[in-house]
Specification:
With about 325 residues, this protein is of the alpha/beta class. It contains 11 helices and 12 strands. The protein has a single domain, classed as Aldolase class I (TIM Barrel), CATH 3.20.20. The chain is globular, with a radius of gyration of 20 Å. The two termini are about 35 Å apart. The structure holds ligand PBG. Ligand PBG binds next to helix 6.
């Protein structure tokens, strides 16, 4: 630590010109840091705008190759897929999640066939498929049953792997699911499929627009506090991450994003493994509404918040702003 002080040290020297600031930047945002979450719907040549996510739509499968090409050209390495399952296919046992020809499997195949250079990440959880909107199987008292749910999640992950997913990302927060999925992937020869564990996923008020997007919002009875984490805790997040890594997760995720930067930093420092952040739907909406209300410059808000994840230690960020951010970075 330097002992010199003012005026020998003038911190503003390092901020005195654009080139100086560029030279001294400790962190940088690059398109390859971004994962783009994409909502899918049934139909043909169909775009369905999502009211609570201004600027974000659901797209029918026939339009996905075009979307994938567009973001691949921007240097975005990976797309995360989320289906809006038709209402009549939502059941108490989420059986549509295991249909090898369901919306997400058709989407995976379409993208992998059309655009070789982009990765596809899929969500492993039952909420887009259940009639009650929970991530797992619910008993008569409304409790989500852990072990029964894990059995289905394993099959769901295998169905997605067979369809061509590169990364499966369990977002359900059941105990023991990473180990069970890893074992099944190995057994079935899917040795190169990565698991990105939603390891520290909080029961958050920021998921509202997402639930509208996948059609689970009006269905959900109660909340998800019996399986997602309490926002009061961060030691517990380290335990969750340790367990998921021990069970075979390749990468971990902290979710939501901005309100949990402290958790990202702790995870990265403790485990030194690829750690992703999910800037979730409510955070996206917050930025869009703030900008629309004139409370801040949209482009600057996008880039400042995304850079904050890098500073906190994140390897990458899932964000609905990915295409816009990539364009802004390119200038
Ligand atoms: C479902 C899932 C959720 C999100 C990603 N996967 C919602 C939830 O847990 O209720 C939220 C993403 C977002 O808000 O952008 N398991």
């Amino acid at each position: 630590m330097t002992t010199a002080s003012f005026p020998a040290i003038r911190m503003r020297r390092g901020r005195s010109s654009p080139w100086m600031r560029a030279m001294l930047a400790e962190h940088r945002l690059h398109p390859s840091d971004l994962i783009w979450p994409l909502f899918i719907c049934e139909g043909k040549d169909r775009e369905e705008p999502i009211a609570s996510l201004p600027g974000v739509s659901r797209w029918s499968v026939d339009l996905l190759a075009g979307k994938a090409r567009e973001v691949a050209a921007l240097g975005i390495p990976c797309i995360a897929l989320f289906p809006n399952t038709p209402n009549e296919l939502r059941t108490d046992d989420a059986s549509e999640a295991l249909n090898p020809d369901n919306l997400i499997c058709r989407a995976i195949r379409t993208i992998k066939d059309a655009v070789a250079e982009i990765g596809v990440l899929t969500d492993v959880a039952l909420d887009p498929y259940t009639s009650h909107g929970h991530d797992g199987i619910v008993d008569g008292r409304g409790t989500v049953l852990n072990d029964e749910t894990v059995k289905i999640l394993v099959d769901q992950a295998l169905v997605q792997a067979e369809a061509g997913a590169d990364i499966v990302a369990p977002s359900d927060m059941m105990d023991g699911r990473i180990g069970a999925i890893r074992q099944a992937l190995e057994r079935e020869g899917h040795i190169d499929i990565a698991i990105m564990a939603y390891a520290a996923k909080y029961a958050s008020a920021f998921y509202g627009p997402f639930r509208e997007a996948v059609g689970s919002l009006g269905r959900l009875k109660g909340d998800k506090r019996g399986y997602q984490m309490d926002s009061a805790n961060s030691d517990e997040a380290l335990r969750e991450v340790a367990l998921d890594l021990a069970e075979g997760a390749d990468f971990v995720m902290v979710k939501p994003g901005l309100p949990y930067l402290d958790v990202i930093r702790r995870v990265r420092d403790r485990f030194e493994v690829p750690t992703f952040a999910y800037q979730v739907s409510g955070e996206y909406a917050m930025i869009e509404h703030a900008a629309a209300a004139g409370a801040g410059d949209r482009d600057s808000l996008i880039l400042e918040t995304l850079l904050a994840f890098k500073r906190a230690g994140a390897s990458g960020v899932l964000t609905y702003h990915a295409p816009d951010a990539a364009r802004l970075i390119a200038g």
